[in-house]
Structures are given as structure tokens and as C-alpha cells.
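Board notes, transcribed. Complex of a protein with pyridoxal-5'-phosphate.
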Amino acid sequence: MMTTTRNFISDRVQSVPPSGIRKYFDIAANMPDVISLGIGEPDFTTPDSILRAGVRSLQAGETHYTGNSGTPELRRALSDYQRALYGVEYDPDTELLITVGVSEALYLAFTAVLNPGDEVITPEPCYVAYAPEIIFAGGSPVLIPTHAANGFQVTAAAIEAQVTPRTKAILLGYPNNPTGAVMERAELERIAQVAIAHDLLVISDEIYDRLVYGFAHTQFASIPGARDRTIVLSGFSKSHAMTGWRVGYAAGPETLLGAMRKVHQYTIMSAPTTAQAAAVEAIRSGEPDIARMVEAYDRRRKLIVKGFNELGLTCFEPRGAFYAFPNITASGLDEETFCELLIKEEQVAMVPGSAFGASGRGHIRASYATSEAKIEEALNRLHRFMQRHG
Ligand code: PLP
């Protein structure tokens, strides 16, 4: 047999460490009686009417590829949905693209716009995939730290300070994973002004737009002057508890969307057909389900934030998504050790804040997309843990 000592892996891929989240899933998967607040997905099953639409589509024999852009029904429904929610018009034929979740849409956006060395400015802590995806596409992430003291808000001034001749885009992810922070409209307007002044693209990942608590989300393209330089990415995974269906979308001006469609044509062809049929139903009838789930998340949010604060783990109040991001320095442990000991000693899985960027140090991410009973039990176990370590 031939053996080889040659390293075939590209420098780009080697330069990126594996996700700091997976490790904890793998440990948790092999443990009985574990409570996982680690995973970032709804505990709800996809609402019934949406499930049935998927099944009906399969039974009708819709088992083929769809057009590259996605089904006309879903693009038309999305165009209406964006207009109704945010007053932004997208032409269903040229300005909407159905993707395999926001995950694919991020890949398409970076691949379509980045030349080697182009810089993308993004606030952190942020979703684990942002920096790696920028690097895979040949770009360079420029990370701006944000902090609990200012509500994990990124300021337009902080972004502008990082603009160089190589800056191509600003990447925003609000409501934010992992902090639960939301962005005030006034600051987004100032960020739009920075984008205009320096002729930058804005890629806005708004996958948690529907999961907000007493807060009105601003869709970035709805800001006057922003639409023509903005790609909005969103989907159904979080709002409609549809992570496993793998369906999302990109909305933006024709030229940008056309370039993304080209990459999508050659790599994916079309998003899952069954999921697209289900997504049409999600838009048609999903509003009461969203309201029901948001109400449940809100109760859990209040429970977990209060619980952390009572344990001395100061917790910034998240206003969106389904994550709490408490400061754990009162434990005397760093976030990695905290999570490792917590799972070993008390079988509770959370994720170290540093998995989401250096400014996440001293924090952990707890997903509250789980039942109140499990959150209460996790808090009991944390209480015991803090008595030993606090
Ligand atoms: N963007 C953010 C901020 C996320 O948290 C996630 C999933 O956790 C994604 C994108 C990917 O979502 P999708 O299931 O649509 O690929």
C-alpha cells in the first residue's frame, strides 16, 4: 500500500481551529442525565401545519430539484413577508434566493464578494461560523470587541475606526448569538452612514429577527439609503423551529444576488424541495406558532437570567435570540475550566464564551431553548457548583 507524508490540507483550512461548541456536545452525548444548555436550536418540534405541508409535498411526488433560486411560491411568499414585516420590497424573481439555511447563505455571500485579503469588519462575540467562513472564502475578518457594559452593542465609530482601503463589508449578526444583544435602530442608522461614506457592503444575518422580547427589530435594508448595499440573510430554523429542514434565504440587490446565485448553482443547485414547501406554509400560517414559542422563550429567559444573577453570575439582559451570556468570573474559574468542571461534576453543558471570540472571555453561553423544568434543575446544579467554586 502507498503511504504519504504529504500534508494535503490547504493553509486556509488548517488556519481555522475546530468549533469550540462541538466538543461539549460530544462530551454531553455520552453522558446519562446530562442537561444541555449548549445547543443553539429550538427544543420545539416544527409546528404541525408546517410538518403536514412537507409531508403533502412528498406525497404529491415533489421529489425533484427546484429551480436554482427556489420555488416561485416561496420567493413570492417571502417577498410579501418582508414587505409586511419591514416595508422592504424585494423582486421575487431577481432579489431573493432560497438557500440551505443561513449557513449556506453566509458561504455564498462571502464567496461572491471577497477577493483575497479583502477585510470584513464584524463585532464579536459572534456566531462561531463568521470568521472561519470569511477565511475559507479568502477574506480577512476584522473583529471588534463588544462588552456587557455597553449592552454588547457595536458602535458606528468603532466600526469606522477599523475601515482600511481593504475593507469590503461589515457583517452584523443581531439579535446576537451568543449574547442575546439587539441593536438599537439609531446606531444601525449611524452604521449605515459609515457604510455609505466608505462605500461598503453590509451583510446582515437576521436569523433571530422574530425572536425578540419587548423590542422592535430593525431590518437593516429598511434603513433609508441602506437597501442597495445590503444583503439580508434569514431563515426558518429558529423562528419556526425548523433547523433540520435546512432552509433559509438571502435578499438583496440583483447584482449581488445574481453573483450568489451563480455560486449556489454550481455548489448546491437548489435548497431541499420538501423544506421549501414547508416554508411556504410557515409563512402562511406560522404566526400563532411564533407567538406561542416567543412567549415560552420569554418565560425561560426571565427564569434563567434571574437564576444566574442570584448565583452571583452577573447576567446582561438578553433582548433577542435564546441565549443568556452571564459573566462567570465570580466562580474564580476561567470559562473553559468552568464549562469542563460543570459538565464533569454536575452534568450541565454550556459553552465557554471564548468560543465566540476573545471578548467572550469570562462568560459562558447558556441556551434557554429548553423546558423550564430543565432550566430550574440546571440552576439547582449550578447552585451546588457555585457553593464549591464561588
Ligand atoms: N446565523 C446565526 C447567528 C446562527 O446562530 C445560526 C445557527 O445557530 C446560523 C446562522 C445558521 O442557521 P441555519 O440553520 O439557517 O443554517
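The chain has a mean pLDDT of 96. The chain is about 40% helix and 15% strand.
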